[in-house]
Design goal:
This protein has two domains: 15-67, Thrombin, subunit H, CATH 2.40.10; 71-175, CarD-like, C-terminal domain (Methane Monooxygenase Hydroxylase, Chain G, domain 1, Up-down Bundle), CATH 1.20.58.1290. The protein is built from five helices and five strands, in the order βββββααααα. The protein has 176 residues and is an alpha+beta fold. The longest helix has 22 residues, at 129-150. The relative contact order is 0.13. A five-stranded antiparallel β-sheet has the order 4-3-2-1-5.
């Protein structure tokens, strides 16, 4: 059994957000031997990706691993979805890099900005393949965190996000 450390911030069964992978669940803490030294690691399961990640306990926070957002942050993210899209007039490759960086930051507000900016209504032009991929990645990450925070199914959270995006678009359409 692993010795307990005062540096451990997360416990078994805690849901966490890891920037590059989204929402995962701590399934345990193990001691592994690496280069002749014992290293305590969080074992994090990402059910959606069928993946297990081992994160060194001392480097978890500096690596960006964090607890789920609190409900106030989720509310702010939902408010962000209702805002007007901010599309820069820069080349798509530069914008795509910025969107990718926001998604991989793990910050729920940044992810909401990507969802808002890349969302297309039925009456708008079709997205390119790369736009659609970024949009789907962002809305999936956001839905998974909202689901974990609100203790609802991912599909219910996805529907909630979709309804918020559609509701914001309706006044703009009728005013036009």
């Amino acid at each position: 059994m692993a010795k307990t450390s005062s540096a451990k911030k997360f416990k078994n069964n805690d849901y966490i957000v890891y920037p590059a992978h989204g929402v995962g669940q701590i399934s345990g803490v193990e001691v592994q031997e690496v280069a002749g030294m014992n290293l305590e690691v969080y074992v994090v399961q990402f059910e959606q990706d069928k993946m297990i990640l081992r994160v060194p306990v001392p480097r978890a926070e500096s690596g960006g691993m964090r607890a789920l957002s609190d409900p106030n942050v989720v509310q702010s993210a939902m408010k962000t979805l209702k805002g007007r899209p901010r599309i820069k007039r820069t080349m798509w490759s530069r914008r795509a890099q910025e969107y990718e960086a926001k998604i991989n930051s793990g910050d729920l507000i940044f992810i909401a900005e990507v969802v808002r900016d890349l969302h297309r209504n039925a009456d708008q032009p079709e997205q390119s393949y790369s736009e659609r991929q970024l949009y789907e990645s962002a809305i999936d990450r956001m839905a998974r965190e909202v689901a974990a925070v609100e203790k609802i199914e991912r599909d219910v959270a996805f529907d909630k996000l979709s309804k918020t995006l559609i509701a914001k678009a309706t006044p703009a359409v009728s005013a036009a």
